[in-house]
Amino acid sequence: xxxxxxxxxxxxxxxxxxxxxxxxxxxxxxxxxxxxxxxxxxxxxxxxxxxxxxxxxxxxxxxxxxxxxxxxxxxxxxxxxxxxxxxxxxxxxxxxxxxxxxxxxxxxxxxxxxxxxxxxxxxxxxxxxxxxxxxxxxxxxxxxxxxxxxxxxxxxxxxxxxxxxxxxxxxxxxxxxxxxxxxxxxxxxxxxxxxxxxxxxxxxxxxxxxxxxxxxxxxxxxxxxxxxxxxxxxxxxxxxxxxxxxxxxxxxxxxxxxxxxxxxxxxxxxxxxxxxxxxxxxxxxxxxxxxxxxxxxxxxxxxxxxxxxxxxxxxxxxxxxxxxxxxxxxxxxxxxxxxxxxxxxxxxxxxxxxxxxxxxxxxxxxxxxxxxxxxxxxxxxxxxxxxxxxxxxxxxxxxxxxxxxxxxxxxxxxxxxxxxxxxxxxxxxxxxxxxxxxxxxxxxxxxxxxxxxxxxxxxxxxxxxxxxxxxxxxxxxxxxxxxxxxxxxxxxxxxxxxxxxxxxxxxxxxxxxxxxxxxxxxxxxxxxxxxxxxxxxxxxxxxxxxxxxxxxxxxxxxxxxxxxxxxxxxxxxxxxxxxxxxxxxxxxxxxxxxxxxxxxxxxxxxxxxxxxxxxxxxxxxxxxxxxxxxxxxxxxxxxxxxxxxxxxxxxxxxxxxxxxxxxxxxxxxxxxxxxxxxxxxxxxxxxxxxxxxxxxxxxxxxxxxxxxxxxxxxxxx
Amino acid sequence: xxxxxxxxxxxxxxxxxxxxxxxxxxxxxxxxxxxxxxxxxxxxxxxxxxxxxxxxxxxxxxxxxxxxxxxxxxxxxxxxxxxxxxxxxxxxxxxxxxxxxxxxxxxxxxxxxxxxxxxxxxxxxxxxxxxxxxxxxxxxxxxxxxxxxxxxxxxxxxxxxxxxxxxxxxxxxxxxxxxxxxxxxxxxxxxxxxxxxxxxxxxxxxxxxxxxxxxxxxxxxxxxxxxxxxxxxxxxxxxxxxxxxxxxxxxxxxxxxxxxxxxxxxxxxxxxxxxxxxxxxxxxxxxxxxxxxxxxxxxxxxxxxxxxxxxxxxxxxxxxxxxxxxxxxxxxxxxxxxxxxxxxxxxxxxxxxxxxxxxxxxxxxxxxxxxxxxxxxxxxxxxxxxxxxxxxxxxxxxxxxxxxxxxxxxxxxxxxxxxxxxxxxxxxxxxxxxxxxxxxxxxxxxxxxxxxxxxxxxxxxxxxxxxxxxxxxxxxxxxxxxxxxxxxxxxxxxxxxxxxxxxxxxxxxxxxxxxxxxxxxxxxxxxxxxxxxxxxxxxxxxxxxxxxxxxxxxxxxxxxxxxxxxxxxxxxxxxxxxxxxxxxxxxxxxxxxxxxxxxxxxxxxxxxxxxxxxxxxxxxxxxxxxxxxxxxxxxxxxxxxxxxxxxxxxxxxxxxxxxxxxxxxxxxxxxxxxxxxxxxxxxxxxxxxxxxxxxxxxxxxxxxxxxxxxxxxxxxx
Lengths: 717, 717
Hints:
The structure is a homodimer. By secondary structure, the first copy, chain A, is an alpha+beta fold. Chain A is 17% helix and 32% strand.
């Protein structure tokens, strides 16, 4: 039986204890303190900086235990995770000292309890900061398993949190308690049979029952190895039903429930990934083509970041509202970016349910994690907990050591022991699931993160990706400025417009986030549109670029299939109210226009145009290739009529009839072409791919009526 | 006490037993049979084909045991390795069925022995051949740990062997027997201390004594953990002394001896290996810069292949004569190519002694090894034996999964479970030693394997490597035709000249070995020299190309340091008498001219020229950069006078005085330049870098007196 407790918090600053304050569990104790001390809305202006003073303090959660235990029952203190270094005291005696927020603790208290009046204290140590590391940077976290994101990122404020971020409670258990159940299976090559093995951790005999999605019993017994004929397979979004079986494990006193999804995952070499042609020859590109149940599936999705700066606050509902948006956008994969690492259990359960595949990284990102024993020991303990805790989820398709570790700003490489350790643990505990040490690997691409830049190939994202040849695009971003509503909730009135280097804009990542002008990127916007007259005009222009930029990128990558196997943009969501970001869903779950644009681009079947660039001039020869894209498991038919609307001019370019694409194949059609007319007053033009049955698309492009074929000025930011 | 046995062999063909024949142990039973049945010299003509009939037979080694055991002694059958699938029978009872040639067996017989007249039989199964694999190809070995080389390679005949290839004997042991001793250590960061831990596997207490190279005791005691102050370090050839300590482990009855070399190895990212500049960005190149005792060491060496088609015959002397050649050529590293895998213990002991670093591959090469459980189980057993058996050797600096596994002709990749398993085992058992899954990795280069070819960048090897930018060249080859003496010992008179597609030349790899014309590559030779008038002229031309080609390649790679960290040619030696090969030492230990040329190029300090190409014409502008190369651990001084000798003309080009290079650094000097004179009758010319103290070099180049600036015809082979 579970007994939730009432907790009080206490801040210990230089040895001096604060007044106690109410502490939420799960939660983050710095937030509890901020509420008690009226820090105000963390999203507003520079309020987030008030947390800087709290970084090096100790914190305590305290409770006087409330529970009842029957004779013979054992009493446990259970927590699914405590962030990050901590001691647990019972009646003043230290009963556990531990490190790492991702492993569960189950502390038996039975023999240590008084008859009445027991106090339990969880003391949280200051956030780990490596001695000698540059103050206020993520380097401080480079010798620990504390996720580095809250040490400051270009979309996350510096705001360090800790505490009882997962459920924590007292539980009484008899000897019949079921500690754990895991269901393992082997699918036959033709998927016609599943050899199931159930592992139950319980001192008493249990009965295992397996139910199909309609609640029919498909197996029941105490024998824990059996064969299931014709298992219904779990498919990702867009490829079939994410079919889940339910199981129940029970004995006379307890029962627990869980789900099983039957599917086979393999990571294959990309089709067309060839050896280098000339000597001296290197290797071919890293394999990154996902096969689900024998079918290669193009991964289309996004990078997920922690959905709240206060991880402890995140609830199942919070996950659900973003994950339904993911599903509705026809995405089938989320990369769980390494700097924030592992979500709560609800997240993975919802991904199982919605058919969203999960690429799970460990908590390493953009740092040089060391080969030393202390770090490796903590990493092993955390990784074991993560792997065994998540491996039963059918949605989980890939383990990854962490983010951008084989790049200059990290400095790790193939020989780094932390990554060899993670590979080893994944092999031992979960070897059927693919593992990569980091992203990007050879052949994969990260970036760019602007609509156009001299540091990318050519000018804009249209050109860049049409001239790239990656096996997978696993990060690419186009930023936009958040809605006026968000800006007015975060930026003081006198800083609002023009967007410039003010304190609030800097803190909310509109400027100086990554490069000087990101993520608002006003010079890029102005290079296309000239100076904006108002904040709302600037926001519209920015979201126009983001929407069309993402559309052009995602659709280009789909056209590069099967050599290219993934289009995963940076990023989906954000942990707080940013003023500008590459995200397509504003905090907490408000879609930007780009979200809807991407949803269109990711429809299983659509007509799509490959347009060489974004900006066009009257008199220029406009060209575009017309394609039918189909990543669905069925053949598709359709027809399309292509026209270009420039001001009042509608130029009919093509009728393509009786178009047929086999399942999972794209078809390249004709190239359309016309000289752009002079359309007075027009500032944009639209290429319209009209199709009677919802497969049409529209592309809004920049148009200038004066003939000016020089390239728009693009600044190197 | 050890009792060697007298063995009889027996071939079992379709269930029918042959007459018994004498069997050598260690040895290969097919060779014993061939001797008994007068197959003749295996090197001659097509004699090697006689072994084809023996491939699918069973074989037996039989002996009537001769030994004496005192009361209380146990009796063991010991073998250091049995090739490949086998059963052991004692008095007709099967006491072991096993697979894999690289693990030791120690079978206790004590309680199974009769008072007299015990027979021991080792039955060897047919060579593994995967069902359904193309007959007569290395693919037959792609589901086993049998080294694939003897299934046929472009320098190894198809000639399958098996049997008791390592020592095998009866041993009696008391309870005081010392099963094993391993010495582990941690060097302090400044190398001033070694924390030593000794692991002794013995039921009785033992004393451990450590001696320096002069025989002085530096530690003696029963305490198995101690600190050694100021340990003398083991260095590779050219960097210092390969200093070895000796140890003795003893108790009242037994003593065993071993050596320890103290050194630290790390594999670092190459200097100048940078992130890709443009988005979308991939990763940087694989780290391949070896650091020995805190000093980056340029790896210069060669690829070692099995030195005999009959592995069982190889003795310590055979290793020694080749390894002294390696040392004398200033080489410091050998890559133990994966297809042949692991040598006998003597090899590694000699490498320890001579300071030759060993890059050890497992027995995978150019095949797609599967993810299946049976194969993984055998691989794990073999790999554990290999790792624990070799990890104490200071010369061993790198583990590698196998050869060219991430290329199209193999088809494995980062996800392949055999390679993840090997990484895991190396991490568990020997994590301080670097591990790579295969060669080449990204940034490393294999090839080319001809002097000039359209499939390589530009024309000849001079151009190719001057226009390559690899972090390491771990295979590159220039073939030559073997000496006339070797040809006359292998090729029947009527086939000798011209070299063409005759049976003997094909079997001895002169034609159709890799490409149609390799390895003799007559069309390439003729493209430079025209048709040869005699065999000896052709051989001279071929060796001229090989010598100068290897010189140009090795010296170019040294000039690319520190970005480039390794120059390791394909290959050093060969397992039998080839008619043509990229090897520089003919079977068994006869240097080709190229061996001496390479020895010159690998001197620690030398003056070297970067010459853009091999072939020159009168009237052309000749150019060369003059360098001083120094990979020694000391600064070097010198002076050089550069001249070009064309026929009778000696053109003085440069005097470079007071040249100083710091330790381990190269120095680029001036470029010399002249118009080539018309020198009647001259067919070659020599660039002479004359230096008073042995640092000079000479480069022989092709010269044509008629002005003809078109590129010589180079065939695409």
